[in-house]
Amino acid sequence: MSRLHSRSSGKASDSEIGGVGRGPATEGGGPRKERAFLVGIETRSRSRKPAGSRIQHGPLTAAAQAARDTSAGMAATKAPDIPDFSAEESLAELRSLAVSAGAEIAGEFLQHRDRPDPATLVGRGKLEEIAGAVASVSADLLLFDHDLTASQQRNIEKLVNTRVIDRTQLILDIFAKHARTREGQWQVELAQLEYMLPRLSGRGIEMSQLGGGIGTRGPGETQLETDRRKIHRRIRHVKEQIENVRRVRAQQRARRESLPVATIALVGYTNAGKSTLFNALTRAAVLESPRMFATLDPTIRSVTLPSRRQALLSDTVGFIRNLPHTLVSAFRATLEEVQRASLVLQVSDASSPLSAEQDAQVAKVLKELEADGKPRLRVMNKIDLLPPKQRESLRDDASRVHVSAAKGVGMSTLLDRIDEMLSEDPLSRVRLRVPQKEGKMLALLEARSRIYSRQYLDGLVELEAEAPESVVRKVREWVVLK
């Protein structure tokens, strides 16, 4: 069973761009968007019931029934149900990814199969149907909501005579588009090279012809082997550059950790509103965009908590379902900020009907990063988009806070909760008698502590304040013992 949907036809593209985005120039001189045709697939195994729910023919003995009940109980304890995306929801996400890459959606195709076809994923008959639909809407490329093997990609391209890109390649293309710093560009390049290497074989006749460079290659070396050597060499170079970045980050982190300043990492599904929340808490100017993966390069800013303690807030790249392993590996230098954070703020889109599914995917990535044991505070963002009645029924608790970063709702509650959960630079209540001439120390207390009382007498300022340990150490000589 399949569903086919095509959009209005447009002029075909002769573009040979490897990724997605701007096609050739239009008659007006400006670039036009490439037209993408989306293909999704749902297999029966996706919705298959667990083995414990299969029908048992014939009566069970008491011992067998007890063993079955015990097994079912253990399975329920060890492997709780994790919400998953339906095929329609997954295809909608692919649509958002394609738009973020700069494509125009020309049509969609969703097929239901018992199992993926090993040669073409969707089957030769369906692929011929897709090829006709792609030609009818003059699509420039075919986007699959599935990872394709090298042979599947080659087989599909031969039949449809159109560029074919799978989900991982599309995400890599978006990352490449949004990388601004040299570090981000290296990380994306490494992921792209590692993705490309096993897919070189058979990519056209030119890949298997003998090279013609005299003195540059061994006898009989093919162009394919040369390209592999070049890619391996480039991978080594990029890894060296990323390792240099990791060393610099480790030095910066060591300097930060020598001070009693906590680091807080923002994590969450892409487009959950992390950058908007980051800006609301730090008054920074990080790019805010409704498009997926608008934030790629990490940013760290200072935030002042209600106790007047300082903390560092780190904005990280958004996670996504089936985040390519090559990306997780390439961005490990960046994501180490999550591993070393004192507190993880997991930001969720409270207005999304897929919030539970997205949270489950974030939890999987945190586990892969070995950061799932970190203290975590759930931040349900975008409550301004909820209906009034639903918004009124929301209740914060010890592990969850509801906010609207765009409207500034719930920010004080969130900061209070963060303050309670951090143990770095602990607070203590002290009584002080500071000479009025010590203006620098008085200014420090004013800025970094909560002052409950203040009296002026005989050239002294008598204060009762709650201050972080780092501040108390600096004014210790004026502390009055009780």
Going by CATH, the homologous superfamily of the largest domain would be: P-loop containing nucleotide triphosphate hydrolases
Q: Using the 3D structure, state the CATH architecture of the largest domain.
A: 3-Layer(aba) Sandwich
Q: State which percent range the strand residues make up.
A: 15-25%
Q: What would the average pLDDT be, to the nearest integer?
A: 78
The coarse silhouette is elongated
How is the CATH topology of the largest domain named?
Rossmann fold
Unreliable stretches covering 5 or more consecutive residues: 6-18, 46-80, 202-221
Largest sheet: 6 strands, mixed
CATH secondary-structure class of the largest domain: Alpha Beta
- What oligomeric state do these chains adopt? single chain
List the SSEs and their pairings.
Blueprint: E1 2-6, E2 22-25, E3 31-33, E4 35-43, H1 62-78, H2 87-100, E5 104-113, H3 124-136, E6 141-144, H4 150-160, E7 163-165, H5 167-178, H6 182-196, H7 223-257, E8 262-268, H8 274-282, E9 299-304, E10 310-315, H9 325-330, H10 332-339, E11 343-349, H11 355-368, E12 376-381, H12 388-392, E13 400-402, H13 411-421, E14 427-435, H14 439-448, E15 450-457, E16 460-468, H15 469-474
Parallel strand pairs: 4-5, 4-6, 6-7, 8-10, 8-11, 11-12, 12-13
Antiparallel strand pairs: 1-5, 2-3, 9-10, 14-16, 15-16
Helix pairs in contact: 2-5, 5-6, 6-7
